[in-house]
Design goal:
mainly beta; Immunoglobulin-like; four-stranded mixed beta sheet
């Protein structure tokens, strides 16, 4: 079989595009008649499908199914649909396809039925004044909904109105607006309003209009000018920071802009800078003010040369100003001025105990008003102790009564008084001067030994010691610190007696290395008095911490008293430690235990703040007033036994027995085989629950407690500072 080529479509079934004008009003309107070449004996049935038939928009087109005529049933709008593509079908009476579907294209022909439209009603543009011709400002463009390929959408632009000057032009095809002439001046006309037109059909069709507003931007082409060449003003002397007056200027440039804002400078007539000038930001005028107080007596007139210019540099093409300089004449008016104490405050010195009538100083003021005849008078304004008298005419100050130490009116040895100087003008003015008088200390009091006598006890081979101090009513440098020495009139004392400084805080004890018998009754020792005229360590005037009683009994058991500071230091450390823990735990508020200076009975190696057997330190000072304990101590620190000592320990009868008392307790603790090792926590005695302090163990072992910090002991005074140095 031969290959069959493509089937040829018959010409009658090929339908060319059909054109129809929009807005056609004669409807129904025959567009075309389609016809199939395959005619059947019974006839052909024709149909069409597509937009405008069975798709939106519906009902625009229809066909006669027997004749094949296609009709337009509604008006067309090209701006909505510019063409329609349909399909045509040919069927026999039985519904069988006779022809393949063919395309039916209907083109809508445009009509000039749409006016041009500007994109906005008002166009706004800016251009600087003085712009060259041809400077483009903005574009006023429009659109047309008609077919852009026809003259229906061919637009042309023009300026209908812009005033008589004709400063702007517009491009007819693009709508771009540019300057047409030179000479744009904002000061002459700052805003231009143009009426712009757009027309289709190349300018002969439909038209529309819009407004173009053009603002001229200011440049600094006008310099500021003074309104006149001379200004006159007045100001009172001694007035600082006040405004004297204004100098007025005028500038044609845009108000409020840098091209308008003026800047003033004082060129001549004020070498000392007594005046200042600033710009009023609202009026642009210059405000002259006084920068430094003026003195009429020194200078009563000023002639200033002031210049003005803009903040913004002037344009090179701008003309020079004939009024860029002005002369300002200022007259200084004389007023009454207050007197002045040149030396204020005045500091003078007077010896303590100066007799009444002793001259102190002559304290006078001066009157700045040298061109006025005025007289000054003086008065005491403040004399709290009524110590002074003043001559009202000469200003001479004398003592009225004896000046002595101490006095509540002295501040660090200084006495403060105030003097008033007044002139006789109308109204009168006054000034106040401060007189500071230093009362110089005089060495008129000898030091006094504290205590005046004491008892020193020791054992063979070991000396005793005594803490001494002194007081002096004089202030430094005639008071403390003191120097202690054995009487130089008795050099033999140096063989058996020595005196050394106790610590750096001025508690010097008398140290006696040689053994001395204890007297039956204490007698004052005249050789222990300090020499009054020699210097001494600071704060030595304080009383020793434990002064010996002048009525102490003989020493039946001599104890070297130099061990007493160590005993007090150890007990102080335990007490400090307990107080610190109590403060941290907040247990000192309303504690049932007395936290005062108590020394606890440690004969059973126990006790603390809650030990009910604690006794006051007066038991050490006066043991004869307190009976010994009757209740035997109970040991609770032995883990396997609760044995108690064979007999209760005897309390010390005198201060000298303290060392033996402690040594015996230490020996009892060390020789007891039932207690734990040396550096372990011991249960000394049951103190009840909630103790405000920890048990007193070895002082050395407490150093390992991370909670301990002994540096604060240095703030407790000289007695604890040494302890802070050892354990801090």
């Amino acid at each position: 079989r031969q290959h069959e080529g493509p089937r040829r479509v018959k010409r009658a079934w090929v339908i060319p595009p059909i054109s129809v004008s929009e807005n056609h009003k004669r409807i129904p309107h025959l567009l075309v008649q389609i016809k199939s070449d395959k005619q059947q004996p019974g006839g052909v049935i024709y149909s069409i499908k597509g937009p405008g038939v069975d798709e939106e928009p519906l009902g625009i087109f229809s066909i006669d199914k027997f004749s094949g005529k296609v009709f337009l049933n509604a008006m067309l709008d090209r701006e909505e649909n510019d063409r329609f593509r349909l399909k045509a079908f040919a069927l026999d009476l039985g519904g069988m396809t006779l022809e393949d579907p063919t395309d039916l294209e209907i083109i809508v022909v445009d009509q000039n039925d749409n006016r041009p439209l500007f994109r906005q009603d008002v166009f706004t543009g800016h251009v600087v004044e003085g712009a060259e011709p041809g400077t483009c400002v903005m574009t006023a463009d429009a659109t047309d909904a008609d077919d852009p390929d026809t003259d229906n959408a061919a637009l042309r632009y023009s300026i209908l109105e812009q005033g008589a000057a004709g400063m702007f032009s517009i491009n007819a095809t693009t709508g771009e607006i540019c300057t047409a002439r030179p000479g744009l001046d904002r000061e002459t006309m700052g805003v231009y309003n143009l009426t712009v037109q757009a027309a289709d059909m190349s300018g002969d069709g439909l038209t529309t209009t819009a407004t173009a507003v053009i603002y001229l931007e200011d440049i600094n082409d006008n310099p500021p000018e003074f309104t006149k060449e001379e200004f006159s003003m007045e100001v009172e002397e001694q007035a600082a920071g006040v405004d004297v007056g204004k100098v007025f200027v005028h500038d044609k440039d845009l108000a409020g802009s840098p091209n308008w804002l003026a800047k003033f400078t004082i060129l001549e007539g004020d070498p000392e800078g007594a005046f200042a000038i600033r710009t009023d930001p609202y009026t642009n005028d210059g405000v002259l003010s006084v920068a430094k107080p003026l003195d009429h007596e020194a200078r009563d007139r000023f002639e200033l040369t002031v210049s003005v210019q803009n903040e913004q540099p002037l344009e090179p093409t701008a003309p020079a100003s004939p009024r860029a300089l002005a002369t300002v004449r200022v007259r200084v008016r004389d007023v009454n001025e207050a007197p002045v104490f040149r030396d204020n405050p005045r500091r003078v010195s007077v010896l303590e105990g100066a007799a009444p009538g002793t001259p102190v100083t002559t304290y006078t003021a001066s009157d700045p008003d040298t061109r006025q005849l005025q007289t000054l008078s003086y008065a005491l304004l403040y004399d709290p102790a009524d110590w002074l008298q003043l001559d009202p005419h000469t200003g001479t100050v004398r003592t009225k009564r004896e000046l002595l130490h101490p006095s509540a009116f002295l501040q660090g040895g200084w006495y403060i008084a105030l003097l008033l100087a007044r002139d006789d003008a109308e109204p009168p003015l006054s000034a106040t001067g401060t007189l500071s008088i230093e009362i110089l200390e005089v060495n008129d009091h000898p030091p006094v030994l504290q205590p005046p006598d004491g008892v020193v006890c020791g054992r063979p081979g070991r000396g005793g010691s005594l803490l001494l101090g002194a007081t002096d009513d004089d202030r430094p440098p005639h008071g403390a610190p003191f120097h202690y020495q054995l009487s130089p009139q008795h050099p033999q004392l140096a063989r058996n007696w020595s005196i050394t400084r106790f610590n750096g805080e001025g508690y010097p004890p008398n140290h006696f290395p040689s053994p001395l018998p204890c007297p039956a009754s204490p007698t004052p020792n005249p050789y222990l008095r300090p020499h009054a005229t020699l210097p001494a360590p600071p704060t030595a005037s304080q009383t020793p911490p434990v002064p010996p009683s002048p009525h102490a009994p003989p020493c039946p058991h001599p104890v070297p008293t130099r061990a007493l500071p160590a005993v007090l230091a150890g007990l102080g450390a335990a007490r400090v430690r307990g107080r610190r823990r109590a403060l941290r735990k907040g247990l000192l508020q309303r504690s049932r235990d007395d936290m005062r200076d108590n020394i606890l009975n440690y004969d059973e190696q126990g006790g603390g703040e809650e030990d009910q057997d604690a006794y006051d330190i007066n038991q050490l000072r006066h043991p004869e007033l307190f009976p010994p304990r009757v209740k035997p101590p109970v040991r609770r620190d032995a883990p396997l036994s609760s044995a108690t000592p064979l007999a209760p320990r005897k309390l010390p009868n005198s201060p000298s027995d303290i060392e033996d008392f402690i040594n015996e307790g230490l020996e009892a603790a060390d020789s007891d085989p039932s207690v734990p090792p040396y550096d372990t926590a011991l249960i000394y005695d049951y103190e009840g629950s909630g103790s405000v302090a920890s048990p007193l163990s070895s002082i050395v072992s407490s150093l390992t407690d991370e909670d301990q910090d002994y540096d604060y002991l240095s703030e407790w005074g000289p007695r604890f500072r040494r302890l802070a140095d050892l354990y801090g």
